[in-house]
Design a protein that fits this description.
By secondary structure, this protein is of the alpha/beta class. About 40% of the residues lie in helices and about 15% in strands.
Length: about 375
């Protein structure tokens, strides 16, 4: 796999209606404060919260809610400024320059970027589209060496939407335990499943596991900038020192709203809202793919509000994505940034009319490119 620096396509929205939503996002349409706080007394209480520094590791009530969601103890939880901070500080705590790491890819590109920034030596275990974007356990076993420090995986996967199966989980745990490596799992999209229950967390599957979560995707609250790390005490404390050094603490108001959002009745309402958006958007995306006459194809994901669409053109994905930006005014992420060419990551958990218009523009640009070859 060859990766192109991800930051190159973090374009600002140029949509003519100045919409605040962009296909470059990887979540659903964000929830509103009214989706979290419905009691007028609670709204009044928000006005009384002093905007002081919050607890460095996170307020006790919020850590309890997160622990319930993760099947952990509150003492294992560190609240961070988004899942991105949690990813960065846990890998910083674990990986020294020259350390060996294994990354299951494609996955969330920040994880690979953090490892490369730390000077790690990285081997990639590729997800196989012929297996529905699952990896070969034998390939993982070959990649993990006696000196492997971390094994990194995204579950549910971004960008493919695949969810690890039992054989893959067993292989990850066995490989980590065989060499004493840490298993770092980005679970930010956990709760975005189209059908069935919530994807089981990998927390507790082995002694050396760290899991990252966030309010941004399944709960539709990216603007809160609240994430978390769940890790054994010694690692959690090392990560906390880095968290305090970089950000001190999560914003106190955001932490309070996250705690309210994770209370059982509100949490379920937010998860149901996300599932409805994902299902509706997936149906629209699937209908568009089926009507494309082979121009694009999609391996149906199990989770997430994104589709990793393959297109049937000779041009590379950076060129295609730039044409979509300049000619169609559509923002999305080229597969090159995930190490997989001739693919485009399309967000679909948004307003139906906006999504339909974007897909129509994508078709127009792709067909124009096809006709000009």
């Amino acid at each position: 796999m060859t990766f192109t620096p991800f930051a190159l396509v973090e374009w600002q929205s140029r949509h003519e209606a100045s919409s605040e939503y962009s296909l470059a996002d990887s979540g659903c349409r964000p929830a509103r404060l009214a989706d979290v706080v419905t009691d007028p007394d609670e709204l009044e209480y928000l006005l009384t919260i002093e905007q002081n520094y919050g607890a460095i590791a996170g307020a006790d009530a919020l850590r309890e809610r997160i622990a319930e969601w993760q099947g952990a103890r509150a003492a294992d939880v560190l609240v961070t400024v988004g899942g991105t901070e949690a990813n960065a500080i846990v890998l910083d705590a674990l990986v020294a320059p020259g350390a060996h790491a294994v990354v299951v890819a494609p996955g969330y590109p920040q994880l690979l970027g953090c490892l490369l920034n730390r000077g790690a030596r990285v081997d990639i275990v590729a997800l196989d589209p012929e297996r529905g974007w699952h990896f070969h356990p034998e390939a993982l076993a070959r990649a993990v060496r006696p000196d492997t420090r971390v094994i990194v995986v995204t579950n549910p996967n971004n960008p493919t939407g695949a969810v690890l199966n039992g054989a893959e989980i067993d292989a990850l745990v066995a490989a980590a335990e065989r060499v004493g490596a840490w298993l770092v799992v980005d679970e930010v999209h956990r709760g975005t499943e189209l059908h069935g229950g919530v994807t089981p967390t990998l927390w507790g599957r082995c002694d050396r596991v760290a899991c990252v979560g966030s309010m941004s995707k399944a709960f539709g609250l990216p603007g809160l900038r609240v994430g978390w790390l769940v890790a054994p005490p010694e690692l959690r404390e090392r990560a906390e020192r880095r968290h305090e050094y970089a950000t001190i603490a999560t914003a106190k108001l955001s932490a309070h709203l996250a705690e309210r959002a994770l209370a059982a009745p509100v949490r379920q309402r937010l998860l149901d809202r996300t599932r409805a958006l994902v299902q509706a958007g997936r149906a629209t995306l699937r209908a568009w793919v089926d009507a494309s006459e082979g121009l694009v194809s999609l391996i149906d994901p199990q989770a997430t509000a994104v589709g990793f669409v393959r297109y049937r053109l000779g041009q590379g994905s950076l060129e295609v994505a730039d044409a979509l930006r300049t000619q169609g005014r559509v923002l999305l992420i080229p597969g090159a940034h995930f190490g997989v060419e001739h693919h485009l990551r399309i967000t679909h958990g948004i307003e139906p009319a906006y999504l339909a218009q974007a897909l129509q523009r994508i078709s127009s640009v792709l067909r124009g490119s096809s006709g000009s070859r």
